[in-house]
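for the recovery benchmark. tokens below, seq after
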């Protein structure tokens, strides 16, 4: 077996079909053993709960090659527990953590030739997901479910370095108080599609969503959490029951406190105070951190002192330390790195 003939540094962030995927079915109250299959097509009832009522939840994580040549993934146990929380909120069954991790490992092993080499900047993106697969026409949860894991190689998120982006304060809301903003469900994305297309049409890279009840507090973007840095180098991240608990953000906070000795505040962040921050970044698995250079609120601009050319200095330290831990140049906290090969 040899690495696939792919131009790793130029593949972009799109779907590339790989050789094998993992499938397990839930029926009569139990999961079957699960297996790797070759067929990339899903066959379900036209009336499946996922198709009619969007009963589906997902996860996203990466496998990559470390400096010493191992293939690893980052904190998959947290993806397993988050999927469990997401599923429970949509009345779906639990995937046990060991089944989830086993499925991820098997899928990566079966597609090992698609794991991009160290130094290419590319990674293997892994997508575990679950959906209600049997027919329901009255509104109720499905009786049968399918859990699948596929993977696809993705290129470096930033070609030629991370340039700061410009975002706008959105007039659309992402998540209601007591709603589903805190779970990783397709439904949260379906309703963000119009807002992101509109943002792009207006020349913005992303939407900053405020809390739906008062429109005074910062929540997150469609797919990433915020971190801010104060002028005296404190790291501040919004706390809210309607934002998705990003694993990247939780890891960065740990890195800030335990590796960089920075003070961290996880608290409500009013939009009014954003203009006083020195740095701003978006965090998620895809990019680790995307620096934000400018936020536009209905014509009023907030320009961070770090500018539009480079990441702010603290953001850069956080980014370098976390990616260093992931790639194996910096010692990881116990349990963060799952070695696959
Ligand atoms: C997945 C996701 C994130 C990022 O979470 P990570 O675990 O860091 O990848 C942030 N916000 C939303 C809405 C998400 O769906």
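predicted aa per position
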């Amino acid at each position: 077996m040899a690495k696939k003939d792919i131009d790793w540094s130029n593949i972009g962030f799109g779907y590339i079909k790989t050789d094998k995927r993992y499938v397990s079915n839930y029926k009569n109250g139990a999961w079957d053993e699960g297996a790797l299959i070759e067929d990339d097509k899903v066959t379900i009832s036209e009336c499946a709960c996922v198709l009619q009522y969007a009963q589906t939840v997902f996860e996203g994580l990466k496998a990559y090659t470390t400096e010493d040549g191992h293939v690893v993934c980052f904190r998959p146990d947290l993806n397993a527990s988050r999927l469990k929380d997401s599923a429970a909120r949509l009345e779906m069954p639990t995937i046990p953590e060991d089944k989830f991790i086993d499925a991820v490992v098997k899928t990566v092993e079966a597609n090992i030739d698609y794991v991009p080499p160290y130094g290419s900047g590319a990674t293997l993106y892994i997508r575990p997901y679950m959906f209600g697969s049997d027919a329901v026409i009255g509104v109720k949860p499905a009786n049968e479910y399918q859990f699948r894991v596929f993977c696809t190689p993705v290129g470096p998120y930033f070609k030629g370095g991370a340039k700061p982006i410009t975002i706008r304060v959105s007039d659309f809301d992402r998540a209601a108080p007591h709603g589903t903003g805190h779970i990783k469900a397709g439904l949260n994305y379906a309703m963000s599609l119009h807002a992101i297309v509109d943002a792009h049409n207006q020349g913005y890279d992303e939407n900053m969503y405020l809390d739906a009840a008062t429109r005074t507090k910062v929540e997150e973007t469609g797919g990433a959490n915020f971190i801010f840095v104060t002028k005296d180098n404190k790291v501040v991240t919004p706390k809210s029951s309607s934002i998705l608990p990003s694993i990247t953000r939780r890891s960065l906070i740990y890195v800030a406190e335990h590796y960089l000795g920075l003070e961290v505040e996880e608290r409500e962040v009013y939009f009014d105070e954003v203009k006083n921050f020195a740095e701003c970044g978006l965090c998620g698995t895809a990019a680790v951190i995307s620096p934000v250079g400018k936020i536009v609120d209905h014509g009023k601009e907030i320009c961070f002192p770090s500018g539009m050319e480079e990441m702010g200095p603290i953001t850069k330290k956080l980014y370098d330390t976390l990616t260093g831990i992931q790639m194996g140049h910096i010692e990881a906290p116990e349990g963060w790195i799952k070695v696959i090969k």
